Amino acid sequence: MLYQIVRKEILENLMSLRFTLSLVLTVSLFAASSFVFVDDHRDQLQQYWQKTNQNLSGFREQSAQLYKLAFYDYDIYRQPKLLALCAGGFEESLPGHFTFDAFSTNLPQLAGQSNFTLPRFTNLDWVFIVSLIFSFIAFVLAYDSICGEREKGTLRLILAGSTPRATVLLGKYLGLMLTLGIPLLLGLLVSLIIVIASKVDVVSPALWIRILGIVALSFLYISIFVFLGLFISARTTRSSISMASLLLVWVVLIILIPSLGRLISDRLQRSPTPEEFGRAKAEASRRVEDDMSAGKFGERAGTQTPNPKECNPPARARYANAEADAENRVIEDHHNKMITQAVVGRNLTCISPAVIYQRTSEAIAGVGINHCVNIYQQIKQYQVQLKEYIRDRDREDPDSLHLLFDDENSVAEWNAISKRPVSFDSVPKFQEQDLALGQSLKLAIWDIGLLALFNLVFFTASFVSFLRYDVR
Amino acid sequence: MKERESGMIWKIAKKEFLLNLMTFKFAVGTILCVVLIAVFVPVLANDYQQRLQKYSQQVTNNEAKLRQVKAYRVLTPTLFRRPQVLSVFSQGLEKRLGDSAKIGFGIIPDFDMIPEINAGPAELNPYLSIFSTFDVLLIFKIVISALALLVAYDVVSGEKEQGTLSLTLSNRVARAHILMGKLLAGALTLAVPTTVAFIVGLLLLLGFPSIDLQASDWARIGIMYIASLAFVLAVYNVGLLFSCLTKSSALALVLGLFFWVLAIVVIPNGSVYLARRIHRVPDVETRNEQIESVRGQLRHEWSEKHNELPQGGGAYAAEGPFGGRGHWYIIVCDPAEAEYWKKGASLEMSLNSKYGRKLWEVEHAYVEGLLMQTQLARSIGMISPTCLYDNIMSALAGTNMADFQAWIASAGTYRQTILAYIRNKTDDLRDLSYITQSTEAERIAWAKGGEFSKGAVQAASEHTLPLNLEDLPRFTYSTGVTEGLRRGAADLILLFVFNIVFFSLSFAAFQKYDAR
Q1: Residues near A444 by Cβ (< 8 Å), separated by ≥ 6?
Q2: What pTM value is reported for the model?
Q3: For B426-442, what is each residue's pLDDT tens digit?
Q4: Which residue of A has its CA nearest to B29?
């Protein structure tokens, strides 16, 4: 019986104009967005590699003298991800240029062709199409599935038989999900074929798993709206009222609530202004200077003349490193505050499944704010690694003072770190690592749970409403 | 006869209007709209108030700094863009674009303070760009337009289904009059939530003490109201057309909804996406390189010309900082040395203005490139009434791109004014107020110790009084209602044309409509 209901629902939907319109709209959107993505991605990759190689060749020159490696201004650009096809994560407008040396990291900057005068730039990625268009289509297909049948009088006929109401509801749900699955899978297929045929990038097995994850997530997300549609349809007696209510629900959930993020961020969590940031930095270095005057780092820690005999190099090194650490702490704190501000706004708009879906897909695709945070952390690790390497190699040089600190002039003049050449191949280089799948899942797991919870709530609601539905 | 016809139109309109008022969708749409306005106008107004406070704070700080200036060449006023009160209605680019510009005449070795205007992004936290904007416009754009569609979809096809259409047409009523009546009814119905929302919003806005609406603001709000009605009616007309084209109201609704999603979601986002592909903007890195190269030229020319200056004949100068960065107080022991420093200052001043101009050109070309892309996105979006409405509202609120461009242009003009003012004040760009001849005692002390005592520098800096900048030309910038209207006029006319075209189409479709 279930099979028959599902089959009837699908066939009926397939014949309807709304299905045809949805199919045309979504497949053409998928195709258009993939063409643009391929074009864009190719350019971005080319620029990324050009900038990365330029940076590396600069780094190679420094290997002529070991100490110079520590003072090289590294330029790192965020690596363009193939999975931006699925979830762009607004990366175009997020900072993507990181500069650092072995001692300190600057705040990330905007890079490339970002345009701050554009209204918020939304990638027409899978997430956009699914979260806005498919949720809408789910409502358009589901609004009359119960009350429409009541109006036509067919609901009575079905229920007059021995079919339990639960089976009817399940049949309708499956019918709708399968109907929605057709444009979704077709669109995804078209999109993937375009990207693979263009040979713009290699789709590795790990990426396939992530893509499958996003597809599964999309079904979970669409399912919420199907249940919600069935619920409202089972609460109303006329399909026009059902549609009006669903449209308003859609407007609130998909458009209004996600737009509140900025307002919430501005109200609840302030990030310091550039002036305050500057003051905090000055304050931090003044405190270290006070410590130095109090003799905390040893005698003559502040003296820096070209002759190391006149100074106290170990004290000077301790002082310089303490200063760099203090400044780093301020910068990192500022960066964390900025991230928190954005995250707070987003967390509080999570009443909308669209925001949760966006956040989860970003986590699985490894893009968006988490990508920026991740690069920032990797840079910190790399700095440690680089310093470790320099100290290791420095031990081989008996003439060196073996003191690595953040003052290029003194290090050079005092021979605090070896000036011997090193083989560039042995120098660790920064290479951005994708977040492991397990870690991505860890980021996403709560959100997946939330989406499942939404499903459960609306399933229960639609089930109860339908059991009590008056078919007359 | 004529009277009877108009009477008929009015009768139909009245009946439709009253029927609409009783519907569930109307009640929900209106209540949602009013509730949203009532909740968010205070929040948005509060946000504006905070920005205004920050603005006045910044202006006061800038004034205080100017009062302490002791030398013309360290006169670096900062200009601030006043937040627009109507940004509550349409935030536009208000929070995205830079709201300050610094005009500097720094000392050459610093290089980063030469006269240039920074017009970068206002965003203190770039990570916030994941959010879209929220303003009153959004509520109108989405909620009332959805309501317009829900009101319109069954006006013709619904009556056909009920069978009342053939009854109406069996009387001696022209089809044109029926459709006119329905249009009037739609306009009246939708005017109710729009008007209520405007009134509630304005009442709440006026409750804020620091929000003071001028006559020009009221005029702009009036035009915003008209534009809102025109927009809502445009969506209604689209719904009407679909209703006249289809036999069943469900079909009309589905078609209307697809149009709505295209107009509200797909086109506004797609146009930005497309514009980015069609018009490429320059890289940030390229701009930075250009700026670096101009600075390199400046450094080069400076060192070349500075070396040519006659040296001060073996006498020395000592410097001591006063009053912040770039303020150096110089005591010279020898008149020839004073001459050397004066010439250096003069050279600096002329190089500063020359290269400042070049740097500004680089910066300006970059920002113009970005704005061109934005303009293209807007032009592509004009096929959707939502984008037209968006443009009109931001033009009227003074938060759109043209407003930003005008502000930058007037900042550029002001920079020229300041330059002219300084030229006028100090003869031949030489600024004597910070170079003084030392006393004989100081000279002897210096010759012994090789350094001026701290007290001498301090005393010298203290006896120089801050400049009298009473007559310094002040920066003023304001947009009136005429500019706003001029910037939004094309879009407003297009919106009216959109209305007329869709109503004519539904008119044509209704003439041939099969009422059976």
Answers
A1: A360, A363, A364
A2: 0.87
A3: 654 444 345 666 666 66
A4: A248
